[in-house]
Predict the 3D structure of the following.
Amino acid sequence: MVELSRKKFLTTAVSAAAGFSTIGWTQLLGAHDRRVPLFTAKIPGSGESLPRVGLGTYSTFDVGSDAGEIRAVREVLNEFYSLGGRLIDSSPMYGSAEQVTGDVSAELGLNAGLFMATKVWISGAEAGRRQMADSLAKLRRQKIELMQIHNLVDWRTQIKTLREYKEKGIFKYIGITHYLTSAFGELSRMVKSEKLDFLQIPYSLGETSAAREGRNEASLLAVAHEHGVAVIANEPFGQGRLFSRVRGKQVPAWAVERGITTWSQYFLKFILSEPRVQFVIPATRKLSHLRENMAAGTGYLPSASERRMMQRDFL
């Protein structure tokens, strides 16, 4: 009988309890597969599995035509795919990010294998249709996996188009986003009243408002979970503020013992160990940072008691 190491046992137990799985030799990775096991989560509305660590493009992919910066994007995107990453998120708000994502992914031959997500960020039905068509063209797509209403801009108008395009098969999934915690009440009402697939919100060790219950009200994460809506956590490092708070400090010994050796992994694993958050999208244009982020999607996940300790120590 093969004896499981304590570390492997704990990893397996926590992942199973959270409803997540680890994939290694998955068919998703194709010709670029390096056979690196990654945590995956199922999209509640369909049961489709997707690697949990994705890639954001805000600021980092907004590089215009700068050859050196495009080279860096190319290296990061190729490595992201090689390590098993699939979910990439952008927006027309992010400058040239959509165009760069589409051009570079097509050049690398990865475009069709990516789970592309972008957003509509404009008022008016026809303006929304034009913007979404423009986004698809920039991303080199005729169809896209996920279209989201960015920061709820004219959402009552745009949701009608999103539903129409989903029925036509142009969008596989639809969702909503916001970057302000003050919008969580409206997001919660939308999740309850609209048939959505995804919700994208800020959630991190430094911003856990989505998990807090109000007076006689369930938390936003609880509402999303109850209604079968997948959650994407953005701003996982609090726009860099979390790193500022730990500058000069060592990762806690208990975490290092469990294979969590960098602060980026520490912060990301806090998010990934929340059972009601399926995906996270750290943004970077640096290979070393990308590799650290992807490593957070493997190995050990903190237990509930360890998560409480992480929060307590961070206050």
